[in-house]
Amino acid sequence: MVRDKTIVLGITGSIAAYKAVELASKLTQDGARVDVVMTGSAQEFVFPLTFRSVTQRPVVTEMFDLASEFSIEHVSLAEQADLVVIAPATANIIAKLAAGIADDILCCTVLATKAPVIVAPAMNVNMYENQVTQENIARLKERGFNFVGPAYGRLASGAWGVGRLAEIDEIMGTIHQVLGRGGDLAGRRLVVSAGGTQEPIDPARHIGNRSSGKMGYALAEAARDRGAEVVLVSAPTALVPPIGVEVVQVQTTLQMRDAIVKATTQANALIMAAAPADYRPRATAETKIKKGTESLTLELVETPDILSELKGDFIRVGFAAESENLVENAREKLKRKKLDLIVANDITATDSGFGADTNRVVLIDRSGNVASLPLLPKSEVAHRILDKVVELLPRRKARK
Ligand code: CTP
Description:
Layout: E1 6-11, H1 19-29, E2 33-38, H2 42-45, H3 48-55, H4 73-80, E3 83-89, H5 91-99, H6 105-112, E4 117-121, H7 125-129, H8 131-142, E5 146-147, E6 151-154, E7 160-164, H9 168-180, E8 189-194, E9 199-202, E10 205-207, H10 214-225, E11 229-234, E12 246-249, H11 253-263, E13 269-272, E14 279-281, E15 300-302, H12 306-309, E16 315-322, H13 326-336, E17 341-346, E18 358-359, E19 361-365, E20 370-372, E21 376-377, H14 378-392
Parallel strand pairs: 1-2, 1-3, 3-4, 4-5, 8-11, 8-13, 11-12, 13-16, 16-17
Antiparallel strand pairs: 6-7, 9-10, 14-15, 17-19, 18-21, 19-20
Helix pairs in contact: 1-3, 4-6, 5-8, 10-14
């Protein structure tokens, strides 16, 4: 997503400036051209050389630097930028931007750019909560600036409160989301389900399955990066909720069904990557079942098949987790569940399926087209699935 993009990273004078080194490094590793612009006070906290070393690019510290490769610094930076990120942003830079003051290279660049701007504030809690700062932030938001954070936590002063720079992963997520606007899924609403549902036996135990949720989360992030409005209906997982995605947490198949029915009322597509339990205990014991009997019989009843039950005009993508006769079983499911596309994966392979970061899948559509993909990272598999969804979507109207 950030590959080959030019990102101007503005650093202002906050102790959190050191964290921006990691941000610059991550963006560079992901293939972005990162042009760092530092205000005078930012240079009191971190040396420009640090950013220069990490980005392998010149760092801009002055408005008119005759030795620089940029002609008139702020104008050429502003024109080349696909995105401007100010992290950390002090109360001072926020005030200057809100007032349209252009007395340093960073303010000038922001004023001169047509690229989207992300602001990640970092400051003392009282400064952040001050009415003036809040008004300035509101004014910038009205003008289309994107904000991420600040977070609650321990501040430089030793006090606790809201004012910490957002986590780098959160800033990265926001960057992906903002750059993704205008992608081939812009204006589309996608619902993705993920993870294995849990059916409670008693207050301490449940019936679960081995789904890690990784494929569904990768799909939600990939759809976000292509501009979609994404609802992720997630069974319990160990994964971090993606930024810029509406996450609805559920536990059981029945809860997942209800959440999906609600989320799909206005959806363009549903991708069911979740592994909902097919059976649940007929009754959940109110207190913990004690041991002492030699055997214990649990009576299970069938849960609803969410995909088969759903009504509505949207693209339906299902998964087929198979341990034998992959394509044959997947085709049967495609038909039985009236799907537009089915993603078949062999769960017996260790490099694909449950818990793995890679997957090897076969995509089968309604017209009988079969595409066997090689072993790929789940993020790449997600994009291949979305390519098919994009192909299928023109048949349906965009929501907006
Ligand atoms: N699915 C669903 N509701 C369920 C069970 C599964 O909507 N109660 C969805 C899954 O999310 C997946 C597809 O149906 O997209 C196929 O799931 P899978 O477990 O492979 O198939 P089942 O229909 O459960 O059939 P079986 O377990 O017998 O293979």
